[in-house]
Amino acid sequence: MDSVLEAWEACSKIDTLFILVCCVFCWPIIPAVGLGYSGYSTRRSGLASFYPGLIAIIVCTVQWWIIGYSLAYGEGNSIIGGFEKVFHRGVLAEPIGSIPEILFSEFQLIFCATVCAIAVGGACERGRLLPLFPFCFLWSTFVYEPLAHMVWSENGFLGNIGVLDFAGGTPVHICSGASATALSIYLSYPLFRSRKSTVRTPQHLKLHRPHNSICQLLALVIIWNAWLAFDAGTTLSLNFKSVMAACVTNICAAAGALTWSCITYYESGTWSLDSTFMGAISGLVLITPSAGFVDMTTAFFIGVLGAVVCRQALRIKFTKRAAMWRWVDNGDTFATHCIGGFLGTIVTGLFAQREVAAYDGFTVIKGGVFFDGNWEQLGIQILEALIGFSWSFMGSYIIYALIDCVPGFEVLAKDSEVISGMDASQMDESLYEAQWETEADYHPFEGSVRLE
């Protein structure tokens, strides 16, 4: 007890409070991802598209406590952490920087669960919910945590070669986008039990517009707000750099939203919430790896670039060839998170500044190409992006395929379930009462009770 209290006294109370507040603001981003997927799905699959976000919270929290934190931030080797912190043994008030280790663990858990919630969006409208429970556990263990260890731990391979990844260009966005793409592709071309089933037909889903703009609106507000806390809290202390990280995150998101929505208005003559939402997300994705390394002006132009590139990438799924190849990108994760993550990781190597990185008073980097003439950084960033994509895509595909081998865990829903909507088959609940014909004539009182 005395040692714990001594460790607590060694922590900065201001920094601890700051990161605790950031955790509170960041947590809603996980269900908000599901809310966004719900809005994008069909009316009869809205609840089943939201629920995977809750699965991610539930499973990742337990997994992180058991072994996840130890694999991501234990000593281990350059690829993966060790087992000294399983079940959070000894993870108490000992400072990580100036905050208690248990708080550091909780903050990093939110990263893990958020990435998982984005990744499982690749199964929306076609994938069954039951297989997502083991998938989230195994994916966290073998995909996210080794990648987080390689990039962010003290002895990680990518971190040691000089990768600049402030808040997760590769462990967050490339990882989630590649994982979601792997799930989507497997559902189009399953290898095992889903393929052999006579009641399951892998095919391209008909493209449709988002069914609920309110879900998109709420998701945008929550995600944008939480992202400011994500990037500011990544400094793990309250200083000028954390303030700047929040500011550049906001301007980049605004630039992306403005660019994408204006292009849509130019082409159609109307303003679009969907375009504003996608533009803001593209800006937030691109700024994530560079939020602690760039100034406001650079962040603005990064947001513009992200909106233009991600918007073009989104067009892929509307082509005839995409339909012929059964390409399904339900939550647009490939266009925004995967392509945006690649681009954000690369522009970090181009525009990172030594001066901005040092705003916290102790971070020293060589900088990027344009401001500090460090061409080597560009190669390091490209290497990180390629490793992150390959690791995430192959790992996710293999895990999903192995789960599909288990009787009763077929990942692809039955044809009848996809046609009728996933809410009825997977949840027996709905966001819309009209779906349940048996409740059409429901009366709260039996018989002919009258109220005088």
UniProtKB/TrEMBL annotation:
<keyword id="KW-1133">Transmembrane helix</keyword>
<feature type="domain" description="Ammonium transporter AmtB-like">
    <location>
        <begin position="18"/>
        <end position="432"/>
    </location>
</feature>
<dbReference type="InterPro" id="IPR024041">
    <property type="entry name" value="NH4_transpt_AmtB-like_dom"/>
</dbReference>
<dbReference type="InterPro" id="IPR001905">
    <property type="entry name" value="Ammonium_transpt"/>
</dbReference>
<dbReference type="Pfam" id="PF00909">
    <property type="entry name" value="Ammonium_transp"/>
</dbReference>
<dbReference type="GO" id="GO:0008519">
    <property type="term" value="F:ammonium channel activity"/>
</dbReference>
<dbReference type="InterPro" id="IPR029020">
    <property type="entry name" value="Ammonium/urea_transptr"/>
</dbReference>
<dbReference type="GO" id="GO:0005886">
    <property type="term" value="C:plasma membrane"/>
</dbReference>
<feature type="transmembrane region" description="Helical">
    <location>
        <begin position="102"/>
        <end position="120"/>
    </location>
</feature>
<feature type="transmembrane region" description="Helical">
    <location>
        <begin position="213"/>
        <end position="230"/>
    </location>
</feature>
<keyword id="KW-0472">Membrane</keyword>
<feature type="transmembrane region" description="Helical">
    <location>
        <begin position="297"/>
        <end position="314"/>
    </location>
</feature>
<feature type="transmembrane region" description="Helical">
    <location>
        <begin position="49"/>
        <end position="67"/>
    </location>
</feature>
<feature type="transmembrane region" description="Helical">
    <location>
        <begin position="171"/>
        <end position="192"/>
    </location>
</feature>
<protein>
    <recommendedName>
        <fullName>Ammonium transporter AmtB-like domain-containing protein</fullName>
    </recommendedName>
</protein>
<keyword id="KW-0812">Transmembrane</keyword>
<comment type="similarity">
    <text>Belongs to the ammonia transporter channel (TC 1.A.11.2) family.</text>
</comment>
<feature type="transmembrane region" description="Helical">
    <location>
        <begin position="132"/>
        <end position="151"/>
    </location>
</feature>
<feature type="transmembrane region" description="Helical">
    <location>
        <begin position="17"/>
        <end position="37"/>
    </location>
</feature>
